[in-house]
Every structure is written in C-alpha cells, then in structure tokens.
Write a structure and sequence with these properties.
Elements (H helix, E strand, L loop, with lengths): L7 H17 L19 E4 L8 E2 L8 E6 L4 H16 L4 E6 L3 H11 L5 E5 L4 H5 L7 E5 L5 E6 L4 H16 L1
Length: 178
C-alpha cells in the first residue's frame, strides 16, 4: 500500500484530465433537452409594458408553428441575434414569441424600442424566472421551435445567426408546417 501512496494523486489527476479534455471537445449547443417532443410547460406571463394587456401563455403556442425566444435586455448575445430575429419577422416564415427573462420589465420594453420588436407576443418572466427554468433554460438567448399542437420540437442554445436560421431552424419550421 505504501508503494501506491505517491502514485495515487497522479492517477487521480490523470483521470480528471481525461474527463476535462473530453468535456472540452463537446459542443454546448448540443445539450439535449428532456422537453423535446413534450408539450410546452403550462405558463401565463404578464405583458411587457407598452405592448397592451396581452402577455404570453402556453395556450398562445397552439394553432401554428412558432419560435419562442428567451432574451433579456442584459444579454449581450441577444443583441447579436436581434437583427436575425427582425429579418425572420420580416420574412413572415414563423411568428416569434419572446420571453423577457430575469429582467426589469421597463428595461425589457425600452430595449425593444431601441432595437426593434420582432415579437408577436412578449411575456415577462421576472427573477427568479420560473417559466424559463421550466423550459430548461440555462442562459439567454435560447430558442424553441413549437409545433401547432404546442409541443416542443427543437431547442437551440445561443444566438440565432442568419446561417443557423437558414440551415438549421428554417428547415425544421417548414417541415413542421407540412
């Protein structure tokens, strides 16, 4: 046993290093969601100030294929994806619904006024953000494609770029509409 004492810490470090290297090789955008092919969690969110009385609820996600985008005025990556969301809205391919997550509602409304509003409906999910957590969100932006029956069909983690939209999300949206 005394012979192994000096080698044991090195063996533990070597095993941890192997797990670390394996983890670095994985794409964090490919984290599977347990909600794929399951109904959207039940929720009802208040409207963002300045957008009328209608917020966003799980019932609003039935009847047509839609894109649900989790964002916040504090989110730097959300600014990166925002021009793409505006282009998607302009294309008319799919309605986009927003969930303003862990944000001051006034700041979320101000942010949309400054950057443009791509959303059909927006709901406020204030701190601690239970609705986004029920969706399995770990950070913003995250987006979900929901089919006409209110079932989550795809989850995308990170900012939606024009390439992601045209090569990944748009084909899914079109196939669900058939």
């Amino acid at each position: 046993m005394k012979r192994w004492a000096p080698v044991l810490p090195l063996a533990v470090i070597a095993v941890l290093a192997v797990f670390f290297v394996i983890g670095l090789g994985r794409d964090p955008k490919l984290i599977p969601s347990v909600l794929i092919d399951k109904p959207v969690p039940e929720f009802s969110l208040a409207a963002l100030p300045g957008r009328g009385e209608t917020g966003l609820s799980s019932a609003d996600l039935k009847g047509q294929v839609s894109l649900v985008d989790i964002y916040g005025s504090w989110c730097i990556s959300c600014e990166e994806e925002h021009p793409t969301l505006l282009a998607i809205k302009k294309s008319g391919e799919v309605p986009i619904h927003g969930i303003d997550w862990r944000d001051d509602p006034a700041l979320g409304a101000k942010w949309l006024l400054a950057h443009g509003d791509p959303y059909t409906r927006v709901g406020v999910d204030p701190v601690p953000g239970h609705t986004a957590v029920n969706f399995g969100v770990t950070g913003a932006p995250e987006s979900f494609i929901v089919d006409q029956n209110g079932v989550i069909r795809y989850k995308y983690i990170g900012p939606i770029t024009p390439q992601v939209w045209s090569e990944v999300l748009l084909p899914i949206v079109r196939s669900l509409r058939k």
